[in-house]
Amino acid sequence: GQNIDQPTEMTATEGAIVQINCTYQTSGFNGLFWYQQHAGEAPTFLSYNVLDGLEEKGRFSSFLSRSKGYSYLLLKELQMKDSASYLCAVHDTPLVFGKGTRLSVIA
Amino acid sequence: DAMVIQNPRYQVTQFGKPVTLSCSQTLNHNVMYWYQQKSSQAPKLLFHYYDKDFNNEADTPDNFQSRRPNTSFCFLDIRSPGLGDAAMYLCATSRPGLSETQYFGPGTRLLVL
After folding, report:
1. Which residues of chain A are within 8 Å of residue B96 when distances are taken between CB atoms?
2. Terminal Cα distance for chain B, rounded
3. Cβ of A48 and B101 within 8 Å?
4. Which residue of B has its CA nearest to A41?
């Protein structure tokens, strides 16, 4: 079976750091994506991990541990515009999405 | 700019009245996907094309059909929309390779009256 778990909602303060976790159990694995989706809009690509470790891209970083079936997205220096849903997706030909984590950034 | 375009952005149809959603891309990607996304849910893959090869997900209802007349265009046909088909429909593209990152269009929000 295929199962991707991430928290439903999170709240964090502007300027802070937040970590969004994702655990997965899939029959195959060719990499893990994180997408950002603002309300009523399409998902936009944030990051891709295929090897274990941390990938840093500006304020956003993504970590992968394949042996643990675990990933996280780290957002630093939070801004109000970061309020969105964050989707974890496993590339298992094709892509399998989690339900997303709705992040609210408050002042 | 290379992109994925979906038209219309909002579509209102009547219960049982056929509707077609369109997607075009200037990325020249081989693979095109159609997803259905309902509120607070994950995007659900309906089908995808690898070039002209059509791949239907096992649980995609027969009510949903697709056409890809050429590399750039792909259509989603809903033959008899029901109230439960109201959703955001997302088109995405990718190029085969190591990561196969999918690039999404802005989506079409379908309302069924």
Report:
1. none
2. 36
3. yes
4. B106
